[in-house]
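S1.2 Input.
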Amino acid sequence: MEALHQKIREEGIVLSDQVLKVDAFLNHQIDPALMQLIGNEFATLFADSGITKIVTIEASGIAPAIMTGLKLGVPVIFARKHQSLTLTENLLSATVYSFTKQVESTVAISPRHLNSSDRVLVIDDFLANGKASQALISIIKQAGASVVGIGIVIEKSFQGGRAELDAQGYRVESLARVKSLAGGVVTFVE
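S1.3 Output.
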């Protein structure tokens, strides 16, 4: 997706050979026009999948997930990282390790929002080692629902997340596949 590639080139900041900072348009400040393009692209890619729900994880996956849900006309559910007073009933939960934050969190979804007839699209901002996607897949399976695909805004292809998801038979569609961050330069998979 050229608009996303261009935005990464212009506003992404390479912090190391493992970390790409995109807080100018995705992880802190959000570019709504770009999110709309991203949502439209995911909706096109998964248009024939019979999606009934979209699942993401708070917080950076919410904007692209909402735009995708808007285009597809389906609800968006985000897994919460922090338990609240209103989220207490027999939650569907999993643990996820954040590579960039270096912390493990428990994420949860209310079972009222997912059921065995749901066909779920997972949307997330980054795919690195695949831990967030695996946690969401676990939650979806706990509900008896099926995962029809995984939409990733930015994939760090030099890490093992895609290979793991591919090996499990999941369809993964990434809009920007980063080949390398070496030398402070973003190079994309052609």
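S1.4 Remarks. Residues 49 and 128 are 25 Å apart (CA to CA).
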